[in-house]
Structures are given as structure tokens and as C-alpha cells.
Design goal:
Blueprint: E1 7-10, H1 19-32, E2 37-40, H2 53-65, E3 69-73, H3 81-93, E4 98-100, H4 103-109, E5 114-116, H5 125-134, E6 136-141, H6 147-160, E7 163-176, H7 181-185, E8 204-207, E9 213-218, E10 221-229, H8 234-239, E11 244-247, H9 254-265, H10 271-281, E12 287-288
Parallel strand pairs: 1-2, 1-11, 2-3, 3-4, 4-5, 5-6, 6-7, 7-11, 10-12
Antiparallel strand pairs: 7-10, 8-9, 9-10
Helix pairs in contact: 1-2, 3-4, 5-6, 9-10
Subunit structure: Forms a heterodimer with UbiU.
Protein name: Ubiquinone biosynthesis protein UbiV
Pfam family, one: Peptidase_U32
Length: 306
């Protein structure tokens, strides 16, 4: 794949946004956001899906009219028969790329082109080669990888004709569990959760017993409390052979965030200066790029030392 024309893509909304906010967001993405590809669909909790079906169709149509490539994302943790049936139905019905976020979807999509999400563990060239053999055409690498490993996998991906994507903005998706943390915090069971996760548009912060900022939770998902910020690292990521950067939707002005990334990718803005501008957009939330630099993931290091 080409390393000169880096793409900017938008990941799926991971949070339980109310339908009106969700629909307005994708309308603005279609009309204003400078991204080539948009991933859309429920990744975290299958209980949210029925409320999104009508809005989903409308959003896909709007995005396609706006010239975006639309990729439908699948669930990250498939545990129930109805969830497995949904994954296989999506694989059968959607004519474009489907994003596999666990191996159930890989099985459903094998033999046709598909995308691989960051929650599938692609930590080496062997795994990448196996997925390419099933039909993977683009792979978003796990966010825990350091730059040295990214470069090795990106080189292997280029040889296989696979596009390498990297999670570059937003709270880092770290894990999913069969338990719902949001319901538990509110004294509810998972089956009668009352969708309390919708109260926190960017996830619920979790601090340590000593009061230190630690993680955030989003239903059954564990995320970083920091926001990934790779703006100053874009030149190094280009040199490493990364083909595309993924922005993860949050409640801040995502169009402005995308424009910052696009400006740095196009060489029109300095990455370090853009990183300062980003802080204002995210309300001075803590930022990080530690995994990329092979230091603790919650840290931020200004320049990549490849």
C-alpha cells in the first residue's frame, strides 16, 4: 500500500449516544468532515442495536451521498445466539466492507474482502498473514503496539496488499467484558441495566483509591481515561508505512479534530502546535501516546523517537 497518501478515517461511535445526537453527528460527518472512510454500527453492546436500526439506514445513506466509504462494524464480544446470527446476517447482507471486531465475524466474512478492527489482536506478521488469507483488506492495529512493531507489521502488510490503519484519537479501547460496569456502578443487573451508560457521552471516569485518574468505562468496555493524540507523531507514522489514521468519535467538535489531523497529514500545520490546539477542543482532558513510544500507555511524549 502507498505510504505517501495517508487516509483519515472515522471509527464507529463506541458510546450509547441518544438517537438524535447520534443522527445529527453523522449528518455533520457526511457534510463537513474531511475523512475518506466512516465505520458505523454497534460494537460494544447488542442491547443498543434495536434502537438504532432506522437511524442507521438513514445515516448510511447520508454518508454515501456525502462521498464517504461506509464500513459496517460488528460486535466486539459475541456471546449469544442472536448476536452470532446478527453478525452472520450483516456479513451476508452488506455489499461493502464489514469490520470484524472478533473472530466470530472473521469466520462469517472469510472468503470475501473485509476489514479488521483494533479489538482483534494483530500483534505479529503471522496473524496478519492468516487474516489476509481469509480476505482482510485493511487492518486497524491494536492501540497497545509500539512504533517499532507497527513498522514491522506495516511492511508485511504492504507485501500482502493489506492497508494498515492506526487508532490515533480518542479514549483508547482496551478491553471488553461479559460484565457491565455501568450497570454495576448504578446497582443494576446487566439484563435490567436501564441503559444507564447513555448518561455518559464519553464514558464514565474511574479513579484509583488514591484519587489518580485511571480508566473509563463504557458499558462492558474498558477504555483509557486519556485521549490518544498522535498529531506530533504523524511524520514518524508515515515513515513507518501506516496507511490510515482512525479518529474515534467523542462529544467534542469532531469536525474540528479531523481538520487538525488533516492539516498535519497534508503538511499544512505543525504537529506539536496542532497538539496544543487539540487540548482546547477536548476540554483539557489528559492526552497520551505512551504505547507508541514503548512507555506506559497513559503518558504523553511530544516527539517520536524511532
Amino acid at each position: 500500500m502507498s505510504t505517501n497518501q495517508m487516509k483519515l478515517v472515522l471509527g464507529p461511535v463506541l458510546f450509547n449516544w441518544p438517537n438524535d445526537i447520534w443522527s445529527d453527528f453523522y449528518a455533520r460527518v457526511a457534510d463537513e468532515m474531511p475523512v475518506e472512510r466512516v465505520y458505523i454500527g454497534e460494537v460494544v453492546c447488542s442491547k443498543r442495536e434495536p434502537f438504532r436500526e432506522q437511524a442507521m439506514g438513514d445515516a448510511v445513506e447520508r454518508l454515501q451521498r456525502g462521498g464517504k466509504e461506509v464500513v459496517v462494524s460488528s460486535l466486539a464480544l459475541v456471546t449469544l445466539p442472536r448476536e452470532r446470527h446478527k453478525v452472520f446476517a450483516t456479513a451476508q447482507d452488506w455489499p461493502g466492507l464489514v469490520e470484524a471486531n472478533d473472530v466470530t465475524a472473521v469466520a462469517a466474512l472469510a472468503g470475501r474482502p473485509f476489514a479488521v478492527g483494533p479489538l482483534v489482536n494483530v500483534y505479529n506478521e503471522g496473524t496478519l498473514k492468516a487474516l489476509a488469507g481469509f480476505g482482510a483488506k485493511t487492518v486497524c492495529l491494536p492501540p497497545e503496539l509500539p512504533l517499532t512493531s507497527i513498522a514491522v507489521i506495516a511492511t508485511a502488510a504492504a507485501g500482502l496488499g493489506v492497508e494498515t490503519e492506526l487508532f490515533a484519537f480518542g479514549r483508547v479501547p482496551l478491553a471488553v467484558s461479559a460484565r457491565c460496569y455501568h450497570a454495576r456502578i448504578h446497582g443494576l443487573h446487566k439484563d435490567s441495566c436501564q441503559f444507564v451508560c447513555a448518561q455518559d457521552l464519553d464514558g464514565l471516569n474511574v479513579d484509583t483509591l488514591d484519587g489518580e485518574k485511571f480508566l473509563s468505562v463504557n458499558g462492558i468496555q474498558t477504555m483509557s481515561q486519556t485521549y490518544a493524540d498522535f498529531l506530533a507523531d504523524i511524520p514518524a507514522l508515515k515513515a513507518a508505512g501506516v496507511d490510515a489514521l482512525r479518529l474515534s468519535p467523542h462529544s467534542c467538535d469532531m469536525v474540528a479534530v479531523a481538520k487538525l489531523y488533516r492539516a498535519v497529514m497534508d503538511g499544512a500545520h505543525d504537529g506539536a502546535e496542532a497538539a496544543e490546539a487539540l487540548k482546547a477542543l477536548i476540554g483539557n482532558a489528559p492526552i497520551s501516546n505512551g504505547f507508541l513510544h514503548a512507555v506506559p500507555g497513559a503518558r504523553f511524549q511530544l516527539r517520536t523517537q524511532a
